[in-house]
Amino acid sequence: MTLGTDGGTVRVAVDIGGTFTDIALLDAGGLIHQSKVSSSSDDPSRAVIEGVAALLDELQIDPSRVAEVLHGTTVGSNTILQRRGAKTGLITTRGFRDVLEIGRIRMPDMFDLTWDKPKPLVPRRHRREVTERMAADGSVITPLDEGEVVAAGQALLDHGIEAVAVAFINSYRNPAHEDQAIGVLKAAFPGLLVTGSCAVLPEMKEYERTSTTVVNAYLLVAMRDYLQRLQDGLKAIGIAAPVLVMTSNGGMLAAEVCCEKPVMVVASGPAGGVVGAARLGLARNDKDVIVFDMGGTTAKAVIIEDGHPTMTSEYEFRDGISTSSRFVKAGGYMLKVPAIDIAEVGAGGGSIAGIDKGGLLVVGPHSAGAHPGPACYGLGNDRPTVTDANVLLGFINSQALAGGRLTIDRTLSERAIDTHVGGPLALSTLDAAHGVRAVANAAMARAVRAVTIERGRDPRDFTLMAFGGNGGVHAPDLARQLGIPRVVIPPMSGIFCAIGMLASDVEHTALATLTRRLDTLTPDELDAAKAALREEVAGRLAADGYGDHQRRYLFEADLRHEGQATELTVRFEGNDIAEIRRLFVAEYEKTYGYRDETPIELMKLRIAGRGLRESRLDFAAMKIRDRAGASRYGTRDVSFFRGSDPVPVEIVGRDAIGAEARRGPLIIEEFDATIVVPPDARVRKDAIGCIVLEFGA
């Protein structure tokens, strides 16, 4: 089946993972086409360009018909993980040179005597002080010394600095000195990349603001170079369409904006899947969902309540488990930007298993990635991974993946697990494989608990929506462990993050710091603050080409009880102060389990202005084109539980599942993913095409 060259415009969404790059194409008739290619770790844009070109050629679509390219990228997160960012300097107020290193004077685990504080992205020798001072109310105490700014800039340039962050005390109240310093630096050193804290985060709390600004400066070179290569490569294959990048909070921004504020897209990759899960949940009338996204490198968990993903205004990016937990701090680099509240662990299909120095079995966080990949790929890795364990247990095909495009060798998986796990622990091959899978499942369950139980939510009250190449393989075990009664696997689950981008809107955010007791705030004052934010965001949406009828505005308030150091965020409509109070009290009690009678403070007001894309995917009317080789039929021996013999299990395609429930065991194979139906589950397909697994009576 081909589209030919006369079918109108098409839209392309691309999600880069650590192992695969996923591509979804939405044609003018609403039909979705898919592709999956190995990621190119040396230059992620190469896999994008080659994969898009190959899919367009396969479908006989002229590249000029592509109207927009939607993109989720891991460039920001990988740059931080690999410490490959720009050589960065910091210019700050005299006396505050060490704010970045002191942080919050906390550690993630008070009993871990081996813990080392993350090294600052800007070493002390590259942090410079200048004379200036703003009061807490924004009045000038000491004028800025421009000569010191020039001297600081020259000293940093002499040390090979490529990007400079400027963060002055209390500049969120009055950015005049910061703007002045940035102007001086740009005039004196035109080649130096400069970013100011007020342009990134006009909020109080000097450490959080300084850290976020430093991360933004650190990513400037990598993000600009990458997006430029991507756009040049797309033009070379005939695509002149604009590139929109998925942000950490689930919106889309023009590539040019992301080049200035790369800190907004550090968590770009998984956000598309969360947005898609929220839209799909609403289409299914399933508003309370736990999102579980397991790919080749990591597994992510998010909760969606009443149709909206849980958001956070700050999170720490770090190795291992990455979460916005209010109780675990100082383990990574603080980013105080709007983001979906995601817990992430280094447990994916490519996560490497082995024995630690204490003789315990560990899985991840290191991954074999796309190259060399799991041992079964035969590309040079001899270490066992979660995928190798699943191959041996029969959960995934032991001959080929990705619709037959990727051949694998089961004997290599067996050799790797015997050598590095079974032998050292004196276990049989199957028992060792079950052990690898159990350890990985425990890590993923920890991520789910981080966004549910640690937030005062009971996972048994939610539906588990699983996607990613490995989501359908491990979700049933997680549901069983956590008592979740239902698992939903959406269509095209293996590339669902790319699918979710097709359902996203352009989104701009802005905020105002108020610091007012709620009982002293009047509706008129609240309305005035909202109007100022609305005007700011409306201008950005207008610049993107969205008229009044295409705009929607969502308001959030950050509140706390007087004397507290952290806030909770609530979404609200209108100017009813009593309703805002009620929403905060309910959220506080849900999160902490009790009520506090202390007066409430409104710290910040935030707006999200959305430009509604006319071409946004409607999940209720979604149409899918099946790929050749996506489904296989037959039987395969599968070992579901440790200590039990493998049993023959029927292998079917998604089209073999109907509305009437049937009992497991069953393996559903697709081009992009595998779904495991264990013996204690029932499986059916809903009206949209989702696979639904149910447990219990």
Describe the model.
The longest helix has 31 residues, at 206-236. The protein is built from 16 helices and 38 strands. Helices cover 30% and strands 27% of the residues. The two termini are 43 Å apart. Strands 13, 14, 15, 20, 25, 26, 34, 37 and 38 form a 9-stranded mixed sheet that branches. It has a 7-stranded mixed sheet with strand order 12-11-4-1-2-3-31. Strands 6-5-9-10 form a 4-stranded parallel sheet, with helices on both faces. It is globular, with a radius of gyration of 26 Å. 51% of the residues are buried. With 697 residues, the chain is α+β, with helices and mostly antiparallel strands.
What are the key terms here?
697 residues; nine-stranded mixed sheet; seven-stranded mixed sheet; 30% helix; 27% strand; globular; disordered N terminus
Write the layout of secondary structure elements.
Elements: E1 10-16, E2 20-26, E3 31-38, H1 44-59, E4 66-72, H2 75-81, E5 88-93, H3 99-102, E6 127-130, E7 133-134, E8 140-142, H4 146-158, E9 163-167, H5 176-188, E10 193-196, H6 197-200, H7 206-236, E11 243-246, E12 252-254, H8 255-260, H9 268-283, E13 289-294, E14 299-305, E15 308-309, E16 311-312, E17 315-317, E18 333-335, E19 339-340, E20 343-345, E21 351-355, E22 361-367, H10 386-393, E23 400-401, E24 406-407, H11 410-425, H12 429-451, E25 463-467, H13 471-482, E26 486-489, H14 496-501, E27 506-517, H15 523-543, E28 551-561, E29 568-572, H16 577-592, E30 600-611, E31 623-624, E32 634-638, E33 647-652, E34 662-663, E35 666-669, E36 674-677, E37 681-685, E38 691-695
Parallel strand pairs: 1-4, 3-31, 4-11, 5-6, 5-9, 9-10, 13-25, 25-26, 33-35
Antiparallel strand pairs: 1-2, 2-3, 7-8, 11-12, 13-14, 14-15, 14-20, 16-19, 17-18, 21-22, 23-24, 26-38, 27-30, 28-29, 28-30, 32-33, 34-37, 35-36, 37-38
